[in-house]
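ok so I'm stuck.
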Amino acid sequence: MDLWPYIVPLRKWWFLIVVATLLAAVSSFLAIRNQPPVYNARTTLLIGRTIFDPNPSSNEIYLNQQLGNLYSDIANREPVRDATMKALGLTWLPQYVVRPMANSQFIEIIVTDSDPQRAFRVADELARQLVNLSPGSSQSEGQARREFVQAQLDEFQKNIVDTENQIAQKQASLGSLTSAHDIAQAQDQIQTLQTKLNLLQTNYTTLLASSQGGATNILQVIEPASVPTKPVGPSKLLIVLIAAAIGLVTSSGTAYLLEMLDDTIKTPEDVTRLLGLPVVGYFAEAGKKFEESPYVALHPRSVLAEAYRSLRASLEADKGSQPMKVLLVTSPDAADGKTSVAVNLAVSIMHSGKKVLLVDADIRKPNIHKYLNVENNKGFGEVLNGELDVRAVMQRWDKGDLYVVTAGRRLDVLDELLLPEKIERALNDLRYLADVVILDSSPFIVSDAMTMAPFVDGVLVVIRPGHTHRKMVKLMAERINRMGGNILGVALNRIPLSQIGFYGEYRHYSPYYFSKYYGENGNGVDNNHHKEEAAKIRIASEGSSGRRRRNNIRQKSDQELSEKEGE
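replied:
not stuck anymore, here's the structure
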């Protein structure tokens, strides 16, 4: 699985991701830096007395659990809140939570406050108010009634003890009796005392059940509140890290969303999927200093020159049985760098020992004369207009076996100039003047390139990743095919240096050549040492036979050109 397509958006929008992450972290820190620490005070209450009963019933346990939910709800009601504030002399209460503990008979009260003393007092008072609301509390019964019930319980308890003692004495005296009448009389007395004891115990139990001591619905504090000593928050570091993580995830998602909404061509896979055409060339940015220069001639052993040699080999391999004489270089949109590709490809083919004719067919906006530093007084426009012959406007470049036909002076009537019959006649004349003819046409947003496409042997489309839109590329391909043109392939040009490793052949080029001849920082650095060393390597690699071959070809071309001019 290739992960590069997933890394590209992150590297492209790294600044957005970094800024968003830092902004989220700094904002969260500024928001919480002055927040005071907070404390938790806790207290726990028990419902009922089943925990003290050696034989509790399941019904009692279930009932107490249900009561826990009711007491938790009551604790958040106004009566409890108002009573707590009144008892403490407060006008507001800090945040608190009253909740029953799962599957138990306990209620937990948690008070959160920045003042530990206040948290403790509120938790303690809330527990007291809940206890007072329970039916079994001492506050739910009147003082006189409680005293009367307690006196009755004490009296019953005393009578029960006395009766048990009397029964024990009577049972002890049975052993000393000999008369049957005395024994029967003593047993009757024991039976009478036993009946009295049972009645006393029943009355005692009934009275106890109706009092606080025997109540089931009763609350009591099991774990009283205490003053907290350690804060529970806020964890400033954790909050900042979470905010930074949210910013990172959000900005990364935004980067992928921007890439998804971007309808430009980005990868070779986009070209293959959209057009079904091969990508035959990958060219990096040459830097601002070399935007309008024959870079391949200046750095013949650079990575960029190697990329143009690879393009040259691909075009020669795809020519089939028919030799490729005339090549049209165009692009879907302006600023894709088609002129740079045309000029450097022409220089690369020239280095292979062929005679090359480079024609500036972009009459609307000519640029080749700027790249090669030649005159532009007359050129292709005059040829199309019938004013001059092609041979009369050809110029030889002073750095090799490369001939140039510039665009010529700007003409106003382009509709009459760019007619199919005029273009066909001019291209037929150009075809026999060199081994390879390269036409640098206008972008496909104008009709010039579409008019020329049927009369050339092949069309090379230049696309700038991240700049050329898919709709324009598709429309251009459809028009070329409709006009009968032959698209040989696509060249990806002006690839950002930060992303060059994501594209095709550049992954496999040696870092040594990249740093030595393309610049240590990848910006097309040029100096005398690099020029001299590049020239030495080029001469040594070609040898004396290569130099003789080029001289012979150049002399032959000059002779042919002189003969044609004489005719």
